[in-house]
# Entry
Amino acid sequence: MTNKRVFIVAGKRSAVAPRSGAFASLTYYDLAAQVVSDVLSESNIDKLEVDELIVSNALGAGGNPARMVSLEARLDLSVGGISIDRQCCGGLDAISIGSDLIKSGRAEIIVAGGVESYSMRPVRLHPENSDQAGVPYDRPAFAPAGFNDPDLAEATAKLAKKFGVSKKEQDDWSINSHLKALNSQEILRSEITPILNQKNDSFTRELTQKICERAPILSDTITHANSAIAADAAGFVVLVSEQFLKNKMCKAVEVLGSATSGVLPEKAPIAPVEAIKILLAQTEISLSKVAFIELMEAYAAQAILCTRICGLDLDKINIRGGALSRGHPIGASGAILTVRLFHELIKVPGITGMAAIAAAGGLGSAMMLQS
# Structure
């Protein structure tokens, strides 16, 4: 790996729509292609200049989703597309892989991110044996036999109980996430590609303690009010080499580094803790120097635990709201964090921001950007 520098010159996302909501009629590749086209237009880069497209998708679309998106977006036919499945971490990891390809000298321009359509996901079946019809299932195994592979809501609830995170703390975090997003709707529109006239995240609302008290329980203190809903969305960034940037002379944010980690599957909600530690050591940047943090809110308890264990500054986290106020489009969520971070950093030169996310199976990913 060479020491080539890598920059993000544009980041766009769709609005996030709840499952069976505004984007229910769209295929994942139509949803993604519209964002890919818009982010390239935003960066003034011709579609035929793109060297590679990397797409995260987690719900089993099959058929190389990246190639489907590449063709639908009318990129050059030589762009085969690279599809990855790292579950919730995938959107962030796609950007990390794209960055590494540019650092290695294999590419100059890469579009990377993720897309998910809960609404149009395939029906999945497990054959009980070779002679019987398949049995439908919703989630796959995230760990083989011999490992504890709990539902993430259950795993989060156990960790919340272990570390003393109350239901009220979780509800308060969720209420605050919605409030910050409501107060930032005009600002957030600048990063959203309007699709089917959706210009805002439609789930964002005035959440109250009374609503939280009535919310159905998922596991112990984890409820529908303090966990992110299933959603449809896409998010992508344009990565370029330093040489390309010099020729274009446009505003950009540098990718300083990225890190991944693995922990026991039952500790998946706090997997970002290790990724953040690795990232801080790799980049030699202290948390005090990080101005903005985009932290995944699959569950309020998860965000609280990662914040508490890492000693993150609450005032720097998800200043425009997080996934609790948007929804969780699995393969796209990490990319949406990055798009959010890019739009905060691009406004002020010389500041640093971090994105971090957990995934089922015990995965954590983090990335550091600098304007």
